[in-house]
Amino acid sequence: MRLTYSNMLATTALLALAACGGGGGGGGGATNPGTVTPPAPVENVVLTLSPSPALVTQNAGTGTTFTVSIKASSAIPAGVNAAVAAKADLFSNTSLSTVSAQEYEARITTNATLAAGTYNSTIEVKLCTDAASTCRTPLAGSPWLLPVTLTVKKVGNLSALAPVAGLHAWNQAQYDAARTSYIPATFTPSAFSFRWTVDPDSAKLRRFKPVVVADKKVYLVSSMPAGNGAEPDWTLQAVEELTGLDRWRTDMGKRAQTSLPVLGDNRLHLFSSGATGNTYRTYNLGTGQQMSHLPSTVVQTTDYAPPLVSGTTVYGQYGPAGALSKFDSASTTPLWQFTESTRGGWAVSTDGTLIYNFTQGIMLGIEAATGKLAYASPSLLPYSGAPATMAPVLNGTQVFVTESDSRGGALAAFSAATGKLNWQVQASFTSYPALVGSTLYAVNGGKLEARNSANGDPLWTSLALGAVQDEPYTEVLATDNLAFAASQSRVVAVDLATHKVVWEYPAGGSIAISENGILYITHPVNGVVAINLR
């Protein structure tokens, strides 16, 4: 077998599949020189291309090379030629190589000059009995088409990554099991710079869950509507924190809804539900391969609250009536299930002794070891709104929450041991608090407030954060010198010493900070933005 290559406007790779040798002379044959022997009939061959579709990402200013596996249903006969053709404006080079008698590999390089955006194209794989460059006599079924979506990402300062002393991985919502949203580090706003972005496709249909980040990888869960009332298609993917480029993608199938992911015990954990019931699944962090799957016939009817990971223990919604369930991360057998409440808002925190949940004005304390109810507080009237999506915040002796509905809001503190209400402040709170030492930070009436955690007394109030109509600031992260507040359209940083806004970014959503000092802003529709904080 002989391989030949041709640029063909730098878009076509050729593979000559005719047997080498043949055609020799030698004397004494009885062949009539005026007779032409017809070629032997060619068997039908079917090619399978993978991955299909091919999803390719690159940063603006750089090209990338990706590989397509080509498998034939039978050995390709001698005299048949193969070619891979791609558009010259998107792809700069292609090559073909033989793996075995029925397996081939195409390597395709993208153009480095493409502007940021999403490009949809098709690559052709042809089998021909004449020259593949013209292919006037293709085999039946040829050409085979491979859809390609090429995403070129905007990039900024792709500086080297280095861990920030004292930080750990952002492995779940609100940073830790106590849900403090406190990042023990100091950052300088003048050093902030744009790094990269992960945008949805050109149709703006993908919906993103907030990210988790560990070991220089960013893990994203997103859905794509299927249309006609069908359940969305869900994707789990990992991108490089250094570049924002894809590491791997896993198709999670059709699900009605899914939780945020959490990272624990070197695996990723997800709870999801669809028409056939809900599931608890774990995935390999390096490859995206599913490691375990626990199905249930119970269908989860409410949206999933963020799961909780504490050491090697995972808590999430699974089983009867969306029960709160406890799992050992290496096992798919629930250690216990709490079904005494069907409120559905299982955003929880833990101090290792109790699990804390606050929904519709009631604080629950659940024994972490047994799953038994330790206490249920009287309702924090008049608030009885929708289930909370952010979990209670702990400091060892108290549990802090905010609650709001159409009548107003409150910041409240309960006894961690008994669930007794210690104090509450009624005002227009829109974010859950972040806790730094003995100070609580929360957004009240469009301003950041600092309050004494012991009694709720005010310490200081910032100037207005820059209100956007009907877009309250719903999340707060605090560092040693800054507090970040996020609405759905912007993120601001407030200096804790001067109480002034010292930085802002025109993108909003959920916020997270990795152990390498990267701020992530995840909007359900607009995608993910990475910001260098140093």
List the helices and strands and how they pair.
Layout: E1 12-16, E2 47-50, E3 54-59, E4 65-72, E5 81-85, E6 91-100, E7 103-110, E8 117-128, E9 144-153, E10 193-198, E11 207-208, E12 212-214, E13 217-224, E14 233-240, E15 246-254, E16 257-258, E17 262-264, E18 267-274, E19 277-284, E20 290-295, E21 308-310, E22 313-317, E23 324-328, E24 336-338, E25 348-350, E26 354-359, E27 362-367, E28 373-376, E29 393-394, E30 398-405, E31 408-415, E32 421-427, E33 434-436, E34 439-444, E35 447-452, E36 458-464, E37 475-478, E38 482-486, E39 491-495, E40 501-505, E41 510-513, E42 518-523, E43 527-532
What labels describe this entry?
534 residues; disordered N terminus; 5-stranded antiparallel β-sheet; 5-stranded mixed β-sheet; 0% helix; 43 strands; mainly beta
